[in-house]
Amino acid sequence: ILRAVSVTRAYHLGETIYAVHDVSLAIDRGEFVLVTGPSGSGKTTLLHLLAGLDRPMSGDVILDGTRYSRLSENGLAKLRREKIGFVFQFFNLIPHLTALENVVLPLRLAGMSPAQARERARSVLETVGLGHRINHLPGQLSGGEQQRVAVARALAPRPAVVLADEPTGNLDSNAGLALAGLFRKVNQEQGQTFVVVSHDPRLEEFADRVVVMGDGRIQDVRVRGG
Amino acid sequence: ILRAVSVTRAYHLGETIYAVHDVSLAIDRGEFVLVTGPSGSGKTTLLHLLAGLDRPMSGDVILDGTRYSRLSENGLAKLRREKIGFVFQFFNLIPHLTALENVVLPLRLAGMSPAQARERARSVLETVGLGHRINHLPGQLSGGEQQRVAVARALAPRPAVVLADEPTGNLDSNAGLALAGLFRKVNQEQGQTFVVVSHDPRLEEFADRVVVMGDGRIQDVRVRGG
Ligand SMILES: Nc1ncnc2c1ncn2[C@@H]1O[C@H](COP(=O)(O)OP(=O)(O)OP(=O)(O)O)[C@@H](O)[C@H]1O
Ligand SMILES: Nc1ncnc2c1ncn2[C@@H]1O[C@H](COP(=O)(O)OP(=O)(O)OP(=O)(O)O)[C@@H](O)[C@H]1O
Ligand SMILES: [Mg+2]
Ligand SMILES: [Mg+2]
Question: From the CB of A92, is ligand 1 less than 6 Å away?
Fold first, then answer.
């Protein structure tokens, strides 16, 4: 369903820094892939390339047969809206909208009616344990609560592919495991594809494959049960 | 050295939410205290009260005999600058300053010469593994790299008290343990007092005491070896 073909992303600050260096990765429909690796190894950069939030200097990304290099910015945004749910490493919630409104927004953009969107948003927020905080603004929520709102916003539209960047980084171990369990449940029951970046070694038991990054390259790929 | 006496902090959004509810905590000079507890249990709020970044509705905080309730905003800021190093949960780095400049700033405010401040800042950034990123702006760093800059900024002035909010939340397990080890080393060699909020259970082995928060209250206090 989603494939990176020899993608490279570098920055030029005096010297050239290769955040992602000649990476190829093919993700099957319905798969749950964990991406791990040291801080600064290129995980976030790779995830942004897979979501079309950033463009590679060379190589290409293909989602359901569509090549990102052939799409305009608008085309990429439309593809993302229809097929991808993204959880940013630092949430990117809209500060002046409540938790509920932040989750309703992508549903309304996808054409859902206001009443249906609120109902779906409320139910996903309750699933992540925030039923009692739905009318709070992001600034009135703790770090972990904001993170769970960001997760709810990505899951609510039931996207074909969920790309999540450290979704449990600010959660205590119970809430973190509960969230990973929720991903696995959605992955298995709805067949949605998950690519999750995490430093949490416990997530390995939820994944079909574990991709280990190092210095912008894929260093190792481990298959579960393999 | 640092004492919270029956502090309460609540928010009124229709209902009253007690983020911190009648909490008393005395921290000895040179102690290493870990604060843990579920997401939303009041850890960040308590740390902000201890740093004078937020004022309690009732109760008081006392640092080295000085009552926060007697101090003006300027007085609190001066006390913070002289005695406290703070690591924010989401870093609060100055976006248009490089990593080096972000760490130099508190040193210059403390009266250090430009050359000395740069030397000290460079050495602390190297200690946290960022010698190769000192001229990057926060937007040109990964999540974990930004977090390490925030830690370096808090440690550089060698403050009497270090208050750190999830300092390893965005780090891989090696970098996280290395940072916790650095805190412990500074705590034991320089006698600086540490209060660290973390969900990472491995930090318990570094702490003298573990304070467990729940629903705004202290639920449990465990002493190491106790
Ligand atoms: N400005 C605010 N208005 C209303 N409620 C707030 C506000 N700030 C925080 N809260 C609430 O106070 C509670 C405590 O928040 P706090 O940030 O201290 O939690 P925390 O223990 O640090 O959680 P985390 O581990 O998720 O960072 C939360 O339930 C939060 O919703
Ligand atoms: N705009 C930029 N300019 C220069 N270098 C950058 C820029 N953005 C990222 N980098 C560098 O690219 C490398 C990869 O960054 P990336 O954010 O992908 O790492 P990561 O694996 O997500 O790390 P973390 O676990 O700390 O979040 C880092 O070393 C970082 O310093
Ligand atoms: Mg990252
Ligand atoms: Mg917090």
Answer: no
Pocket around ligand 2 at a 6 A CB cut-off: A 11, 13, 17, 19, 37, 39-45, 89; B 133, 136, 140-145, 170
CA proximity to B46, closest of B15, B17, B25, B75: B25
**For ligand 2, atom 4: residue with the closest CA:** B140
Ligand nearest to the CA of A43: 2
C-alpha span between B82 and A62 (Å, rounded)? 54
Q: List the structure tokens of B203.
A: 């930090």
Over its length of 226 residues, how does chain B's per-residue pLDDT go in tens digits? Answer: 999 999 999 999 888 999 999 999 999 999 999 999 999 999 999 999 999 999 999 999 999 999 999 999 999 999 999 999 999 999 999 999 999 999 999 999 999 999 999 999 999 999 999 999 999 999 999 999 999 999 999 999 999 999 999 999 999 989 999 999 999 999 999 999 999 999 998 899 999 999 999 999 999 999 986 4
CA dihedral A73, A77, A78, A82 (to 10 degrees): 150
Copy the structure tokens of residue B197.
Answer: 């909020």
Phi-psi region of B191 (alpha: psi -120 to 50; beta: other; left: phi over 0): left
What residue of B is the nearest CA neighbor of A14?
B135
